[in-house]
Amino acid sequence: MTEDAANTATEADSAKAEPPADAIPAKAELPIAAFDMPLLRIDGVAKRFGAVRAVDRLSLDIRRGEFFALLGPSGCGKTTLLRMLAGFETPDEGAILLGGDDIAQVLPHQRPVNMMFQNYALFPHLSVRDNIAFGLKRARMPRAEIATRVAEMVALVRLEGLEKRKPDQLSGGQRQRVALARSLARRPEILLLDEPLAALDKKLRESTQVELMELQRRLGMTFIIVTHDQEEAMTMADRIGVMDQGRLEQVATPRKLYEAPNSRWVAEFVGDINMLEGEVGPGDAGRLAIATKDAGTIVAAAPPDPVKQALVFVAIRPEKVKLSRRGPASDTAGTHTINRLEGIVIEVSYLGGFTTYKVKLDSGAVLKSSMANTARLDVDAYSVTQRVVAWFTPDDCVVLEQ
Amino acid sequence: MSARRIFARPARFAAIAPYVWMVLFFLVPFGFVAKISLSQTAIAQPPYLPVFELTQGLAAIKAAFAALSLDNFKLLVTDDLYVLSYLRSLVVAAVSTSILLLSGYPIAYGMARLPRRWQGVAMMLVIVPFWTSFLIRIYAWINILQHDGLLNKILLALHLISTPVVWLSTDSAMYLGIVYSYLPFMILPLYATLAKMDPALLEAASDLGSSPLRAFWLVTFPLSLPGVGAGVLLCFIPIVGEFVIPDLLAGSDSLMVGQTLWLEFFTNKDWPVASAAAVLLLALLLAPLLLYDRLQRHQLEGAR
Hints:
The complex is a heterodimer of chains A (402) and B (304). Chain A is of the alpha+beta class and 402 residues long. The model of chain A is unreliable at 1-34 (pLDDT under 50). Chain A contains ten helices and 20 strands. Chain A has helices spanning 2-14, 78-86, 128-138, 143-156, 172-184, 202-219, 230-236, 254-259, 264-269, 329-333, and strands spanning 40-49, 52-62, 67-71, 93-98, 101-102, 113-116, 190-194, 222-227, 239-244, 247-252, 274-281, 287-292, 296-301, 311-316, 322-324, 339-350, 354-361, 366-372, 387-392, 397-400. The A-B interface holds A 86-88, 107-110, 114-115, 117-119, 121-125, 134-135, 138-139, 166, 168-169, 182-183, 186 and B 198, 200-201, 203-211, 214-215, 218-219, 222-223, 302-304.
């Protein structure tokens, strides 16, 4: 499973590399985007606010038709990056190439890019129809065409019958859809979405996520979304860029981000994880034996790049840590190496679909485990103070050097 | 039910306080003025007839009522002196309010775009002139504008003029005085609406293809209209009835209605005509007030 994820991820990463020389069109008039050139190339972009480096020499390629998410804690620079794409901030350094043209210095109203604002920024004095038509009128589109396009947009976001309402006569979800229709009406090359679902309640947010994905697929448009909600990013995006302190920590598919994080920071930021520090010892082919002080020797799958440091971290997701009363059956068969750690259950949290456990190992370290509640009757449940074996395979482990 | 709870006993008394105030200090005096406006002038104490004497019985009061007439109002609308002074008041108020709006809007706009901590300072600078008496400030202008005043001295020193220019007792001086005095009343309501506007709206307008100037006309200006309305009324209404500024700074060849009223009252001792002039002035000013009220109600309903 991990190898699968790694494969898709390598494919995803290959788009970042330069297109092969023979792929570059001989004739200049050929549309560059038709080849492997990305739609948007962010090249060494930096932005400072006083002494703070909001965006720190960041490079990123985004393909046409991609749903890309910028994920990060608040203040990581993701919104600043988005605002530079929209034109509200000008980069101090670097270039932003859209279809090959540098738009870093182009004013916002002259960019073929539209933004959906976090609090929607609907014009309170204009009706739903006039809000959606606003951008079309500025583009000097003929009246009849505007009417058709507005009707099309209203149907797209299912706001029929509300065209004459003012924004403050709409519910939160309706306002969100007006904002979406308004930003899509001009058919931008790229739609930027700044925390578009943050103001909605949980149920509405989840259904809107699905709607946004369907819409993006149907229109074949390129979406770049900024969010601090990792579930939202995982659900919707083809690729996620995780940002911290103005830099991209990792750019990968949701699966690779979760199963093969490239640093401790990413591993801990995305989802929950057990982190064990240890020294690398000799192991079988494709395996590393890591001597941890909290959990003894752990056999882990060797990462694709050879490990250079002696001191590393072994990261295991809680749902990869299985609990049982005795050791797993395959262990006795001896066909696979399995890591087994003994301890006492000290905390049980029943969460409906799954239950999370905290197991205190004999070394005193605490291991988190999460198990799906696949049976309705709790014959398998463990209780506090129960002694259990926590086990996981070498492939369940990620070895991280930084 | 809930409204009644809110207006439970102590609160209910507090709620009627403004009405008591209005009745006591506006409606009752206005009743006197309205009655005098329907009377005839007389050389007596008080200088008008009829006088209601509650001690003379019902018949006398009936006779007094019968003696009331609209003659003073007829005089006001037929005599050029009054018609012209009303017209002049309206023209002066309209011109001054336009100048105030054109100069106050950019100032308010600039203030609203200052960094937060400077906005308070700017606000202080707008309000600071109020710390000096209004009359003293107008006298200061007389000092500046007079024949050997500061303005002429500076212009002469800069060789922009060769002989002193007559500033005082002209319409220019009056407009200068009015704009100077009323500017804060224009700036403050404008600033209040502009400062609370969401800057994201301008970004949205620009994102959707508006140049900064278009974004201003399509978004900022329409959204600032409540402030424009408040500022215009706050200036226009008192300027129509303005007395001190035109009396001190303008020439005496044409009068504003406030001055006419003053003349009738103090020089001619014609209380009934002066009262009628005051009542008519109030009626004139009621029109824009009602209009503004309707507009605001319309906006509120639109918001619902």
